[in-house]
Amino acid sequence: CSGCVTSAETVLLEAQSVAELTARLTQPGAVVVVSVSPQSRASLAALHGIPAADVQARLTTALRQIGAAAVFDIGVARELALAEAAEEFLARYAAAAAAAGAAGAAARPRAASPLPMLASACPGWVCYAEKTQSGGLLPHISAVKSPQAIMGALVKRHLAAARGWEPAKIYHASVMPCYDKKLEAARDDFLLPGTSLPEVDAALTTGELQQLLDGWDMGRLAELPPSPLDPLPGASRGNSGGGGNSGGGGNSGGGGGEEGWEARYCLPPGGGAEPPLHGAPGSSGGYLETVARAAAAALLGPGAGPAAGAPLALKAGRNPDFRELTIHPPPPPAAAGGAAPATGKPPRAPPRPLRFAAAYGFRNIQSLVRKIKLGRCEYDYVEVMACPGGCLNGGGQAKPRAGRSAAELLDELEAPWRLPLSRAARALYKSWVGGPPGSPAAAALLHTGYHHREKTALGTVGDW
Ligand code: SF4
Q1: Ligand 1 within 6 A of 442 CB?
Q2: Which domain holds residue 134?
Q3: CATH of the domain at 238
Q4: Cβ(383) to ligand 1 under 6 A?
Q5: Is the ipTM reported for this complex over the cut 0.90?
Q6: Ligand 1 in contact with 177 (CB < 6 A)?
């Protein structure tokens, strides 16, 4: 990563340490909550040679024994982020299409939230964009908070209220694949409203979590028994992700018929066990996959896009870290062999193909940014990640030593793809957010903004 870190930021980052978390675990009255990312679970599984699906339950044992009040899987926050990203894309696409219609088909629309929409979950990329790019690029970045930031709000607002915990007494630590997440946790955009309290007090890397556990002689996860996962408030059982616990059986979303968003993002009531959510190849979050599938279904109609359960046909571009996907509309009925229905209206122009890409690593990011600035970027949505190979190659990951890579273990954990919202996440839209994905209530809670930031010469994110 190449954004520069200011001196004020350096102070905030140094406070996010194993020593600080250790002090909070032993501080009388402190309520320590730990949220673990799926990429960290995969990395720990590779390190310890245990199934990735077992890691969360063993971490719950270890962290509770050393004083944590609750341990969560960030997967549930990621599910909210994915549904929000897909809804934001559909809204941007509709606005761009309306602007193009008003200005004439040949005109390139200049919307407030333009296309291509660029993913916002990687703080290395967001930091780079804010500190090196002019304002023109920032509106392209998705307004959706990252899973870490959503988890912060979930813990300090919803969980605190449900458990009767005073937010000021909660110390919320996240476990993430990279050091850049510390910078994100320190952003003043992610303070508990009306206070100076961060919603994520410390982001520790996977390696730092292992160091913490080793310090308490709890680091041999393979030897620990599993513990039941901590329940999220408003979900019927458990939290999403780790160990396949996605909120328990039954439809916790409440009565009534299926609304549009539920049909788009949720398993039907009584739809059986939920397999864990599949991430995109490179496993940086599944944004491209979720946005592409939702857009194909909503904009191109049934029959467009990959079938449920089939993988995305991503095509490697100029290097393995740049991949593309084009989804064509299904052929019109006449071309498919049947006669077009006689409606008396002139036939509508067929929808255009949708174009998606994944751009990982700064070489690919710089090329993408150049094309956007020149108005020559043909994609509708791009999943942008700073690390070549995505989050599994994050600088904070533990190194595998059991003869299996973290990528293999994450594939095992997360295949096959499913609709993004588990019953637990769906229940959160009702019990916490107070509106469906893409609603004003969801935007108020789950979206953020980006600002041009000054950089100094103190060092680069990659130097930490
Ligand atoms: Fe962190 Fe790299 Fe993942 Fe970005 S791609 S969130 S910098 S690990």
Answers
A1: no
A2: 80-145+275-337+348-414
A3: 3.40.50.1780
A4: no
A5: yes
A6: yes
